[in-house]
Amino acid sequence: MAKIIDGKQISQEIKNEVKEEVAKLKEAGKEVCLAVILVGADPASAVYVRNKKRACEYTGIRSLSYELPEETTEEELLALIEKLNQDKKVHGILVQLPLPKQIDESKVIAAISKDKDVDGFHPENVGAMVTGTLGFLPCTPAGIIELLKRSEVEIAGKNCVVVGRSNIVGKPAAMLLLREHGTVTITHSRTQNLREITKQADILVVAIGKKEFIDDSYVKDGAVVIDVGIHRGEDKKLFGDVNFEKVEPLASKITPVPGGVGPMTIAMLMYNCLQSRKRVED
Ligand code: GUN
Fold first, then answer.
1. Is the CB of 96 inside a 6 Å radius of any atom of ligand 1?
2. 272 C-beta closer than 6 A to ligand 1
3. Mind listing the domains of the chain with CATH numbers?
């Protein structure tokens, strides 16, 4: 029987820690402020943005909301970002992805001041993550590391296998596990003999985007399994990239879906906003 890694509880702890620090800053007359930009009406994005604004309310972070129409031009979006970059009262800028097709995502990400890039997507922050210097870490991968640390999972020296190589999860998760001194292997859709590799994992991080792809045949006895996937079944039930029923009896620790990695992303976003405010000299 695996011990469940409770992302809901751990994310709540982090939000409470942030809330306490935000309140202290407020007493000293310092406010923390996040600007959230949503372009278009993608229903999933609207839900994510609503949850981010709710987390701001909970932690005492002021949120500014910009809901722009689907047909917004790249120039208009870049002009808004520039205005927010200049605004000393704004400490974090988040542009919800994906963006409509007329807008170049990489141009938008690069336009956000690296000092306000609380998503950790700006190339300078990616570079800082790789070299281990001060920047902002991307929220989902940073959340995975927090889940492991707060569940007393030792990373140093362990075989860590990441399944998936996206820029927002797989690649940065691998880099952060390496920073924690794990021995890291990145696998993906073209990996040969995937099972042989995942079976070596002490820590298996799955972010492949395929519903219940990883079953017990991919997992070593006693492995720690982190499931980043989220898929909605026919009856609205949520599933991960891991077949929980099959893998749970084998694993020593495992994250559920929902209530595992998901809530950590927003908690780490709140954490990044607080860090951004603390780095401002005033
Ligand atoms: N879309 C999916 N995940 C994310 C995220 O972490 N940040 C932003 N801005 N957009 C996303």
1. yes
2. no
3. 28-116 (3.40.50.10860), 139-263 (3.40.50.720)
Q: CA torsion sign, 173 to 177 to 182 to 183?
A: positive
pLDDT tens across 20-64, in order?
999 999 999 999 999 999 999 999 999 999 999 999 999 999 999
Mutation pick for ligand 1 pocket among 118, 167, 168 (CB with most ligand atoms within 8 Å): 168
Instruction: Please determine, for residue 1, whether its predicted confidence score (pLDDT) is greater than 80.
Output: no
Average pLDDT, whole number, for the chain?
Answer: 97
The fraction of the chain above a pLDDT of 70, given in percent, is: 100
Pocket test of ligand 1: the residue of 34, 51, 96, 122 to mutate, having most ligand atoms within 8 Å of its CB, is 96
Q: What is the pTM of this model?
A: 0.97
Mean pLDDT of 114-122: 98
- DSSP-assigned letters across all residues of 246-267: HHTTT-SEE--SSSSSHHHHHH
CA of 216 to the centre of ligand 1 (A): 30
Give the model confidence (pLDDT) of 82-94 as tens digits: 999 999 999 999 9
* SS3 of residue 40 by DSSP: coil
Q: Which two tokens stand for residue 185?
A: 């292997």
